[in-house]
Structure formats: C-alpha cells, structure tokens
Amino acid sequence: MFLFIGANTWAWKILSGNLSSAKVLDSFYIADPYMVIQTFATGFIVSADVLIGALIVLLFYSIVGGRAFCSWVCPMNIVTDTANWLRKKLKMYEEDVKVPVKRSMRYWILGLGIVLSAIFGVAAFELVSPISMLHRGIIFGIGMGWAAVLTVFFFDLFVLQNGFCGHICPLGAFYSLINRFSLFKVNHIKDNCTACNKCFVACPEKQVLIGIINKKDSQIYGSECTNCGRCIDVCEDNSLKFSIIKYKKLKIK
C-alpha cells in the first residue's frame, strides 16, 4: 500500500496503479486475474501486457497460497479486523445473531460477476467492489467510496463476524480456487498438540481447522485457509508452522 501511495504522492516508479492493474518498476504490469476474466466476459480485448501480468499474479499466488492475498494484501482487512475487534469488546458473539448466509455464497457471487459482466459489457464486480473503492480511496481520496466501506464494516459488526470476507467476497472465492494448488500450507505436529482450541478461536475460516482440532490431519488442506498465520501465533504448543505441502497419498481400491 505504501508503494502505491508513494507512486501517486512522490512519483515513485516502484509500483504505480491499483490492485486491479499496476506497473512494476515502470517496466511490466501485474493485474488481478479475476478482473481480467470479467473483462474477457465483456467482449473487450485485453492487451498482452495485462494478460501476462494476470498470469504472473496467478502463478505467484498458486505457489505461496491463493488466499494469502486476503490476509496480507487486501486493504479491507483494516475494516473487517476493526469490526471483529469491536465485536469482542462489545461481547457480540456468533450465537447472538443467526443469519442464513452460507460460505458457498461467495462462489455464486464469483460466477454472477462474470455473467453480469457478459450481459452489461462492463466488469461488474469492479463497479461495486468495496476493496477497489477503499484501495483507490486511500491512494487518491475516498470520495463516496466510504459508503461501501461502512456497509462492510457494519455488516461484519452487527450481522455476521467475518461476513464479507468469509461469505460474500468473490475475490476470496477466486483465490480459494487457486489455493488448492499452493505449495505452502500450515503444518500440524500432532504429537505437540494439546487440543487447546486457541487456533480455532483465532482463525477467520474456522472450518479449515476441523481436521487439526480432531488431530486427524498433519496439514491444513482446506482451500479457504488464508495463510494468515494467526493460528501459529496463538499456538503455545509449537504444533503449527508453515511448511511445503505434503500431498495426501491416494488410496487405490
């Protein structure tokens, strides 16, 4: 984020543009693959520079873990983490509110964004994305984008914890699909684990820890893991750490 601000404020040439498309060292582009897919759906032709930039990003996150974008890059973390912190201060727990919003909804929104892009001839999610609004707002000035950002904040605060990132955001769904092929996972040393469940409390995608909590899995294989490392930070048993993926052995019957 600081590099983007530097490009706009002090004319740095390190990283200029935004999260949808940016130029690196004034020589080559990187681009959001989901934005490029939406653009293809509209019928517009994407330049070779942007297409290569999308492939670079796709390859990078395929290696380090797709949803690392969500935990380490996405500016919406500032908003959702603040909402979650305030929920804890106000003692607003999950059981207080029951909302019929499944995590699979974000995959439906992912597909809907592509369909609407094809119908209306414009990258649909880019028009309403609070992520893009916040990122551009931090760099160039927030304008009316504050309304979308506040909507996410109040949704996460009063309606559903981790609601936007965990249930709504199509970018999270997209990077979850990429995450299936990533090389880096959280490794679980079962012998050290005391089943204290502190990792479960800290994790924003708790369902990926079920195998760990039950001491069945030696790694977190769930594609929706954000590789945020919160579980590692809170583990006092030193039973969790980042490592290269260990592929499960295929059983042939």
Overall strand count = 5
Could you tell me how far the N terminus lies from the C terminus, measured between alpha carbons in angstroms?
Answer: 51 Å
Order of helices and strands: HEEEHHHHHHHHHHEHHHE
The structural class is mainly alpha
Strand content: 5-15%
Major β-sheet strand ordering: 1-2-3
* The number of domains: 2
> What share of residues is helical?
40-55%
Give the rounded overall mean pLDDT: 86
What profile does the largest beta sheet have?
Answer: 3 strands, antiparallel
Q: Please give the radius of gyration in angstroms.
A: 19 Å
Number of helices: 14
Q: What form results from the Cα inertia axes? A: globular
* Low-pLDDT windows of residues: 249-253
Name the descriptors.
mainly alpha, Alpha-Beta Plaits, 2 domains, three-stranded antiparallel beta sheet, two-stranded antiparallel ribbon, 5 strands, 8% strand, disordered C terminus
Summarize the structure.
The protein is 52% helix and 8% strand. The chain is mainly alpha-helical and 253 residues long. The termini are far apart.
